[in-house]
Write a structure and sequence with these properties.
- This protein has 164 residues and is of the alpha+beta class.
- The protein has one domain (6-162): 3-Layer(aba) Sandwich (Aminopeptidase), CATH 3.40.630.
- The protein has 4 helices and 6 strands, in the order E-E-H-H-E-E-E-H-E-H.
- It has helices spanning 21-34, 45-54, 106-120, 135-144, and strands spanning 6-8, 11-15, 58-65, 70-82, 87-97, 125-128.
- Strands 1-2-3-4-5-6 form a 6-stranded mixed beta sheet, with helices on both faces.
- Helix 1 (21-34) crosses helix 2 (45-54).
- The radius of gyration is 16 Å and the shape is globular.
């Protein structure tokens, strides 16, 4: 899905390019720190480049702050399919705004644009997960963007150590 570059207030939202992988990685590393999951963060900029641009498994959206002259946010997306809806969907793998810029409407802008693009492209839904202890994000998702928790679902995972 093509994410067109646009400006809102002092912020530029754009799809990441191959040369942005180190910036995306830096923001993801900050997210792992925020979530107290640094020990689990193994990704490298080269991994991102391979996944996003060689294998085409997803996209990354960056937010640039013209005022501070730095990137302040990232959204990492992958695509899926809902057999029940018969439509493609989006999974938000990572969604991070630097702490000093939270509460400025940036996250709402990102989600709103993603919702519009999803609608315009015939997608059926957008899914993501949130750590249970991340109360500020949960409140944002429920109150600001009116997302609903999927309490009837349980997440299961097989880790690569189990692939043998």
């Amino acid at each position: 899905m093509k994410f067109e570059t646009y400006t809102w207030n002092n912020y530029v939202f754009r799809q990441a390019a191959r040369e942005d992988c180190s910036i995306v990685h830096e923001l993801m590393l900050e997210l792992s720190d925020y979530e107290n999951m640094q020990s689990e963060f193994k990704s490298t900029p080269k991994d991102l480049e391979n996944i996003l641009f060689d294998l085409h498994c997803g996209d990354a959206i960056l937010v640039y702050d013209n005022e501070s002259d730095q990137h302040i946010g990232v959204m990492l997306l992958s695509y899926n399919y809902s057999s029940f809806k018969g439509k493609p969907g989006i999974f938000i793998e990572d969604f991070y705004i630097r702490e000093k810029k939270r509460g400025c409407g940036i996250g709402t802008q990102m989600i709103s644009r993603l919702v519009k693009l999803s609608h315009d492209n015939g997608f059926g839904r957008i899914d993501w997960m949130c750590l249970k202890n991340n109360k500020p994000s949960m409140e944002f998702y429920e109150k600001t963007i009116k997302a609903k928790q999927m309490n009837e679902w349980v997440v299961f995972r097989l880790d690569e150590k189990q692939f043998c």
